Amino acid sequence: xxxxxxxxxxxxxxxxxxxxxxxxxxxxxxxxxxxxxxxxxxxxxxxxxxxxxxxxxxxxxxxxxxxxxxxxxx
Length: 74
Ligand SMILES: [Zn+2]
What we know:
About 10% of the residues lie in helices and about 25% in strands. It is an alpha+beta fold.
């Protein structure tokens, strides 16, 4: 188990919640971004929104990212 201290969780989001969050499509790991507040699946290039600290894990709510989207590089 690796500790990632470079990612800061947005206020209201329980950091421990991220340990159980997985992409609903590929079941892969998600990368948290604070600004904008999204959870990114790099495999699917999808950004799932966070609303009031709650992750919206719906494919139809996710934003598709371009291959060169900076969210995928961070
Ligand atoms: Zn995925």
